[in-house]
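User: Reviewer 2 asked us to show a designed sequence for the structure in our supplementary figure. I'm pasting the structure tokens here. Could you produce the per-position amino acids so we can include them in the response letter?
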């Protein structure tokens, strides 16, 4: 899985969906960025969250299990090699649906944050979408609903302060090409997602969640 992601590094650095957007702007704002705020960006991918937070003056450490992503630290979300409470803020954007053990990953992210968790991911929109996502990219594990996110974060000892949903659109072809989806899978994916495709654009929804540690 890690090697697959290393090969995709350039595609995710250049992807407009990942590089910018109102969701990214809000995620950065919810980190309460200031000089000297220490942030860990989990599953950093193309490093877009880290770039924006560094521009805002934060000290950012990036972590990702794929060596090709060139993060500061190579590790998966469910085994973060940091002491408890090492960071003021932990971020994780558009990646949790790839984690094999989401509860372990959220617990780890909460363990190393002493103040905030700010997470964005594609929100669960039904089993047809999940089937399409897995056909497109076998590293897709699952998307979660707002209620599931609230439960995961609360279970990890954080209180959800704010949630916002974003309705977004992206080129279906670019979405498939980014992960080299085989052509034979693409036809079935188009069928599964037919009611979400218009003029070659795929509608999708993401959730951004801000939660504060209830213990510190
Ligand atoms: C869509 S990219 C992340 C996008 C990035 N956060 C951004 O805002 O542009 C997904 C990333 O998740 C990483 N990943 C996959 N499985 C993971 C795991 N178990 N733990 C942490 N990261 C993982 C991949 O290596 C990849 O870099």
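Assistant: Here is a per-position design you can include in the supplement:
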């Amino acid at each position: 899985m890690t090697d697959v992601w290393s090969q995709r590094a350039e595609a995710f650095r250049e992807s407009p969906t990942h590089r910018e957007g109102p969701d990214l702007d809000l995620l950065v704002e919810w980190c309460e960025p200031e000089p000297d705020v220490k942030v860990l960006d989990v599953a950093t991918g193309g490093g877009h969250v880290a770039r924006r937070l560094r521009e805002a003056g934060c000290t950012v450490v990036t972590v990702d299990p794929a060596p090709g992503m060139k993060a500061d630290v190579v590790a998966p979300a469910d085994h973060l090699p940091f002491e408890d409470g090492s960071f003021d803020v932990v971020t994780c954007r558009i990646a949790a649906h790839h984690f094999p053990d989401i509860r372990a990953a959220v617990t780890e992210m909460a363990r190393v944050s002493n103040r905030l968790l700010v997470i964005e991911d594609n929100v669960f929109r039904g089993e047809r979408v999940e089937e399409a996502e897995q056909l497109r990219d076998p590293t897709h594990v699952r998307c979660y609903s707002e209620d599931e996110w609230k439960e995961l974060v609360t279970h990890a000892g954080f209180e959800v302060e704010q949630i916002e949903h974003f309705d977004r659109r992206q080129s279906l072809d670019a979405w498939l090409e980014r992960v080299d989806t085989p052509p034979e899978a693409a036809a079935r994916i188009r069928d599964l997602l037919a009611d979400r495709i218009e003029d070659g654009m795929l509608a999708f929804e993401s959730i951004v969640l801000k939660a504060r540690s209830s213990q510190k």
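For the response letter, you might also mention the following. The chain has one domain: 2-123+140-168+203-213. The chain has ten helices and seven strands.
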